[in-house]
Amino acid sequence: MRLLAVFAWLIVAGTGLAMAQEKATEAERQEVIRLLGQLPDIAPIREDLRLLGFSGENLELAVDQAELLYRDPVIAGYVADQVIAAFEDPTAVRVSDGLMWPLVERGLGHLPTRDLKFYYTVERKIMETLTIRQCGMAVSNRMRPARFAELTSRVAARLNTDALQKYYRIQAKAARVGARRAPIRLSDATTQRVEDRIQASMTRSIQATDRAPSLMVAMMNLDQARNTEACAIGRLFMNTVLQFEGRALRETLVYMSRP
Q: Which has more pLDDT, 179 or 94?
């Protein structure tokens, strides 16, 4: 979850770890990994999750997910390298996104289609649960990452336990893959094919509504659209692409998963 990733960054950044300006030694790297492994014990993760609405089995799942992400040796090693890079050059890492979420983004596109479809089905559920204003601001990129993280976490807290467990499992798998592999790349030809397909499919979906004129304008100027239209576009987009099948579905979900 983005919120926990940002929180973890703040904890690590505040430890006063004195990194030398020259290239970090392996001992220093192991020290960062050790500190990451301690986060679930010293940070009020359980209490923060309760405040977000987690309880019962979902609370235990969320706590376990935090522990897994910060103690998995592959993931922790990659995050440690990012922490060290940030100390040496604060511009080298997108601190506003935390250290864990970009790692998930790196790996998502490599996952099997069934995992990606489930992942975005949950994302659609999250989008449908947000208020129109919240949804519109998120779709048009007018919401702060930390605020979006809080809202999506509150929705995740209310998912049924089986869905939340599978969602977390996919996130963890993506993080592990992202620690080992570069983000997936699509060829220019594939990118153009996907964008043309999305444009055509969205146009048909919009024309089937009773708000076609205003939604077409909103789709062409999403950053300036009102929240009502922006949210409608976002929800229509998710419904449209999740109806694709075969190669079209695979290419589109990978396209959506690029960092």
A: 179
Q: Which residue has the tokens 């935090």?
A: 66
Residue-wise pLDDT for 166-219, tens only, equals 999 999 999 999 999 999 999 999 999 999 999 999 999 999 999 999 999 999
One-letter amino acid at 34 equals: R
Q: Give pTM, 2 decimals.
A: 0.83
Q: For residues 80 and 36, is the Cβ–Cβ distance under 8 A?
A: yes
Q: Convert the pLDDT of each residue in 154-181 to its tens digit.
A: 999 999 999 999 999 999 999 999 999 9
Residue-wise burial string across 118-137, b where 16 or more C-beta atoms lie within 10 A, e elsewhere: bbbebbbbbbebbeeebbbb
The sign of the torsion formed by the CA atoms of 78, 81, 87, 89 equals: negative
Token pair in block for residue 76? 């922790």
**Residue 204: CB partners within 8 Å, gap ≥ 6?**
none
7 near 43, Cβ under 8 Å? Answer: yes
Specify the DSSP class assigned to residue 99. Answer: T
Long-range contacts at 248-252 (CB < 8 A, ≥ 24 apart): 248/197, 249/113, 249/117, 250/113, 250/116, 251/186, 251/190, 251/193, 251/194, 251/197, 252/194, 252/197, 252/198
